[in-house]
Amino acid sequence: MNEKKKRDREERQNIVLWRQPLITLQYFSLEILVILKDWTSKLWHRQNIVVSCLLLLAVLIATYYVEGAHQQYVQRIEKQFLLYAYWIGLGILSSVGLGTGLHTFLLYLGPHIASVTLAAYECNSVNFPEPPYPDQIICPDQEGIEGSVSLWSIISKVRIEACMWGVGTAIGELPPYFMARAARLSGAEPDDEEYQEFEEMLEHAEAAQDFASRAKLAVQNLVQKVGFFGILACASIPNPLFDLAGITCGHFLVPFWTFFGATLIGKAIIKMHIQKIFVIITFSKHIVEQMVAFIGAVPGIGPSLQKPFQEYLEAQRQKLHHRSEMGTPQGENWLSWMFEKLVIAMVCYFILSIINSMAQSYAKRIQQRIKSEEKTK
């Protein structure tokens, strides 16, 4: 039976766009139809909830488009809602790693905090005009006094974005928890590699010798024995094994609010402030100047590597002081082009991973159907 499951899993894993493009696209389309059918059926059996949501949506649309004195409040709420939704969405994507394990902190939140830090030290103020902040950062007309910007003022400036991103990462940790909890309650075996690896780890706990296995067992024991504070400790530090904590909590039926409360506090408050402080210190004015000087000191290639960074930093200073009409230096074009292509590549790979995953889900449906037909014969 185990060999049969292993063969089925290997067969599903071969259904990817770069190996079987036609079958993958076909199964992906069929899986979408199955999901739409399931959701339509669920919504049909919950007509009261659907009608209530539609009425609420109609009221919100009418409030949004009807002119009146309330429009200033509507616009303010809309702006805050979109800001929160943007960062929470990026946080959720960070938990799934954009299909590659790469966090959106490195692509979005980290650069945003770094930009605010550089601008704060250049402008001697964090009172950037709104708008265009946060879409664009420019110095206020009345700049502050040299040395008036503190670490705490920069932390306060980016607190909302960072905390919302942390809330998103906490929400993104819920699927492993719910998957493991449902599997434990139903007795079914989900087709999830991490969950299967977790069960194998429990079976062979005493024989674990390598460092990775011992680290996973340590996380599992910490969460299982210490409970809320064990989850809080795992969530409060950058921890690539935290998915295992979610699976452990689900498998041992830890209450939802114990798991989610500890995860939310750890990721959105404690861990987020650790990451913010690290980025702000790293991109403080004197540290950046030292890093650029260090790049220039590299024998042979140092000056050629240093020049684009110097031009990029100078371009940012010009933009902050409303002097962007002088043109965009080549260094900024090069760095911006590299960053944009990296983001596009990550998003494309994320989309490909979704297509492959949904195609493999449909292949599993076919295998389960064949297995059930064999049992009935």
Could you explain how this protein is built, in words?
It is a single chain. By secondary structure, the protein is mainly alpha-helical. 76% of the residues lie in helices and 0% in strands. It contains 16 helices and no strands. Mean pLDDT is 79; it is low at 323-332. Keywords: Membrane, Transmembrane, Transmembrane helix. It comes from Myotis brandtii (Brandt's bat). This is Vacuole membrane protein 1. The chain crosses the membrane at residues 49-66, 86-109, 222-238, 244-265, 277-298, 342-363.
By secondary-structure content and strand pairing, the structural class works out as mainly alpha
Please give the largest β-sheet: none
Q: Report the portion of residues in β strands.
A: under 5%
Radius of gyration: 25 Å
| Chain-averaged pLDDT | 79
Apparent shape: globular
Number of strands: 0
List segments where confidence is low: pLDDT < 50 over at least 5 consecutive residues: 323-332
The span between the termini is: 18 Å
The SSE string, one letter per element, is HHHHHHHHHHHHHHHH
| Helical residues, percent | over 70%
Number of DSSP helices? Answer: 16
